[in-house]
Design brief:
Blueprint: E1 7-12, H1 18-27, E2 31-34, H2 36-44, E3 50-51, H3 52-56, H4 71-78, H5 84-93, E4 100-104, H6 108-113, H7 118-123, H8 128-138, E5 144-146, H9 152-161, H10 168-196, E6 211-215, E7 225-228, H11 231-234, E8 235-239, H12 245-258, E9 265-270, E10 273-279, H13 283-293, E11 301-305, E12 308-309, H14 311-317, E13 322-327, E14 329-330, H15 332-338, E15 345-349, H16 351-357, E16 360-365, E17 368-373, E18 385-386, H17 394-407, E19 415-418, E20 423-427, H18 433-446, E21 455-458, H19 466-474, E22 478-481, H20 488-497, E23 501-504
Parallel strand pairs: 1-2, 1-4, 2-3, 4-5, 11-13, 12-14, 13-15, 21-22, 22-23
Antiparallel strand pairs: 6-7, 8-15, 9-10, 9-11, 16-17, 18-23, 19-20, 19-21
Helix pairs in contact: 4-8, 8-10, 13-14, 14-15, 18-19
Length: 512
């Protein structure tokens, strides 16, 4: 179906390219109608344009809140030009067909990002724009809706090649763009109102985000994938190959571990699990302690630190093959050294933006989604509770708290052996908690790490005393765990019999 475009209505918040686009439309003989600031920009460029009030005979009112909500506008957008009834009513009421609608919406998301007052945020909720777009998209056979400025040049080329017409398939694609755009716009507004009304678990869950980057493939090469949202606003890539799906998953896990620390800290991640984590007076010191936990697994992994990487630290970690190195920044000499490996990805992260971005977790399941608030707490409000006869020494307590911060980020069942400033051994993702402990102890042996005097952390309670007994045999002197098992007394007794100190946190940290 070929329908020649004769009249266009333009009303845009983002005026990028609108003057050039309008000029091209005018040269094609298309009549231009516009609103407010858009009409002014077009007119000042010397391009003939009519104000919307000339079409409707009605001035903009209520501080421009009402200007396009008018039958002469929506009739022009919704009129079916192959309908005798519609054409008759349009002729009777003086409604002209609007064949091309060019609209983008008030900058609600940008207003949110600048932390504007609530009143300003509300005023940036567009009403007329979405209404016009939805009308035009519904009537795409007769009204071509354009919401994306990036398509202006493409549309001009198509109009020039096709006697000012756009074919049906292309119009259908424009309509799809509109409904995705307005759905995303509305979801951002809904999310804002849910937040200010403290609806942490909304009755209707809207999940929306703009595509930031197409990915070569997903978790495996046969899976298609893309990145959506504002991830690249938090992480800035400075060097290396493009990010993969698995890189991004690992980056997310790595960044959340480092958020647990204010002091200088470094973590090495592989398949979302930490291989080693440590703090130190310098990044180099933290690196050496973290790497010593497991010198085999970090190959092909991720390094992350919450400080600026200097040349000393860069030199220490440069020879290890790593997929990514992430830091708050890199000094010039460190960056120059690390960039010598062309494939290695180097990224800087805005930790403030990162922390502010963590609020909810969403996971797809058959037929729907699971939604939960993110696990941003460490322990219950009542705090630590010593449950054994022996209380932890100050140094043991430091090791326990360090281990607890790490166990939270290890796949369940998680067992972590630590000193006060570093991991010593990690057992992750086993079906049995005792198996996780045994794996950790075995890895410590392979790395020639002595676990005598260490602390042991478990992400969830011990269902039986055997986990504590395994820790005692390895040389651990203290244990931190949530508590809450029906066999807690049996577990506590085992700790007492081995002269171990045990503290309960009152909060578990399953990570499936």
């Amino acid at each position: 179906m070929k329908h020649r475009i004769k009249m266009a209505l333009l009303s845009v918040s983002d005026k990028s390219g609108i003057v050039e686009f309008s000029k091209e439309l005018h040269q094609l003989g298309i009549e231009l109608i516009s609103t407010g600031g858009t009409a002014k920009a077009i007119s000042e460029a010397g391009i003939p344009v009519k104000e919307i009030s000339e079409l409707t005979g009605f001035s903009e009112i209520m501080e421009d809140r009402v200007k396009t909500l008018h039958p002469l506008v929506h009739g022009g957008l919704l009129g079916k030009l192959d309908s005798v009834l519609h054409l008759g009513q349009m002729q009777e009421l003086g409604i002209k067909s609007i064949d091309l609608l060019v609209v983008n919406l008030y900058p609600f998301e940008q207003t949110l990002k600048k932390n504007a007052p609530h009143e300003e945020i509300v005023e940036n909720i567009d009403i007329g724009g979405p209404a016009m777009l939805r009308s035009a998209a519904k009537n795409y056979l007769w009204t071509a809706p354009v919401v994306n400025p990036a398509k202006y040049d493409e549309i001009v080329s198509l109009l020039k090649a096709n006697d000012c017409a756009l074919d049906e398939d292309y119009r259908l694609g424009l309509a799809a763009d509109v409904y995705a755009h307005t759905a995303n716009y509305d979801s951002i507004i809904a999310d804002y109102f849910n937040k200010i009304t403290h609806r942490n678990i909304p009755e209707i869950l809207t999940i929306s985000g703009k595509k930031e980057q197409s990915l070569r493939y997903g978790e495996n090469p046969h899976q298609n994938a893309a990145l959506y949202g504002n991830f690249l606003d938090i992480f800035e890539q400075l060097h290396g190959k493009e990010l993969s799906y698995n890189n991004i998953v690992d980056m997310d896990a790595a960044a959340k571990i480092i958020l647990e620390f204010d002091e200088t800290a470094l973590a090495i991640i592989k398949h979302t699990n930490p291989c080693g984590v440590a703090t130190g007076s310098t990044i180099k010191e933290a690196w050496e302690k973290a790497f010593a936990t497991d010198t085999a697994s970090p190959y092909g992994g991720i390094i992350i630190t919450n400080k600026v990487i200097n040349l000393e630290a860069a030199t220490a970690m440069h020879d290890l093959f790593t997929e990514l190195i992430i830091a708050s920044d890199f000094d010039v000499e460190a960056l120059a050294l690390l960039e010598k490996k062309k494939a290695r990805r180097l990224l800087k992260v805005d930790f403030k933006k990162l922390a502010n971005s963590i609020s909810n977790d969403i996971k797809s399941v058959a037929g729907g989604f699971l939604f939960q608030n993110s696990d941003t707490e460490l322990m219950s409000y009542t705090g630590l509770k010593t449950v054994t006869k022996r209380i932890p020494t100050p140094e043991e307590m430091k090791a326990l708290l360090f281990g607890w911060r790490i166990a939270k980020h290890v796949k369940s069942n998680a067992i972590v052996y630590t000193a006060a400033d570093r991991t010593l051994a990690i057992g992750a993702g086993q079906m049995s908690r005792v198996d996780s402990s045994r794996i950790a102890v075995e890895k410590a042996g392979l790395m020639n790490i002595d676990l005598h005097g260490s602390a042991m952390a478990s992400d969830a309670y011990f269902p039986f005393a055997d986990g504590v007994e395994e820790a005692a045999k390895s040389g651990a002197t203290c244990v931190i765990q949530p508590g809450g098992s029906i066999r807690d007394e049996e577990v506590i007794k085992a700790a007492d019999e081995n002269n171990m100190a045990m503290v309960f946190t009152g909060m578990r940290h399953f990570r499936h």
